Amino acid sequence: MSAPRCGVADLVHPRRTESNATKHSKLHVVARYNFFPDMPKWPPSRTHLNYAFGPIPGAIPLEELRGVCSRAFQTWADVTSFTFSETPSGESTDIVIGFYSGDHGDGHPFDGPGTVLAHSFAPTDGRFHYDADEQWSTAPSSTQSDLESVALHEIGHLLGLAHTPDENAVMYAIMMPGALKRDLRQDDIDGIRALYAGQ
């Protein structure tokens, strides 16, 4: 697969959940969201998560990245019981966001410009890595990737969602250059609410 995409591996045997007979005029709605194996998630005692920034390329202003990430975290907060706040680097944090090139020590090396845009880890790891060699923008052209759309996707992984086959959803693995996905779709919302149901 050479399309620009998230570096989190797709599940060979995804964990899918069908809605319990959601029917309207003989229409059966099937939920397409997926979870990681064993369904890792943040415990009920940790609904407020702190995040900080690691290495950031000079070409991306920190204030711009702060705004991007703040909006992406708030989008997830709006549909969950989670709240998020930035904390200074060096303090105890739940999530660290940074930009890395090639082999950066997490066992998932980046491939340079092109295919893998970013990756993050399932709860409660908290690492979110952008590929520093990609062309990033907050107003992407047809050759650039949108910082906010990718942040929204990777935060979904940090919260426990795996990739979905729903091409319209934020948690779909592929993100073409110039594309914007800054709003959660119903599949994303249903997935995160199913994962944390009862918490």
Automatic annotation (TrEMBL):
Gene Ontology BP term (one): extracellular matrix organization
Binding positions for Ca(2+) 1 per the UniProt entry: 134
Gene Ontology MF terms: metalloendopeptidase activity; zinc ion binding
Binding site for Ca(2+) 3: 111-112, 131, 134
Positions of Zn(2+) 1 binding: 104, 106, 119, 129
Keywords (A to Z) from UniProt: Calcium, Hydrolase, Metal-binding, Protease, Zinc
Record's cofactor remark: Can bind about 5 Ca(2+) ions per subunit.
Cofactors that this protein relies on: Ca(2+); Zn(2+)
Source organism, top-level taxon: Eukaryota
Peptidase metallopeptidase domain ranges (all copies): 38-198
Signal peptide (UniProt feature, chain positions): none
Residues engaged in binding Ca(2+) 2: 94
Statement: the UniProt record of this protein carries the keyword Secreted: no
An example Gene Ontology CC term for this record: side of membrane
CDD domains: ZnMc_MMP (cd04278)
Binding annotation for Zn(2+) 2: 153, 157, 163, 171
Active site: 154
UniProt name for this protein: Metalloendoproteinase 1-like
Organism listed in the record: Rhodamnia argentea
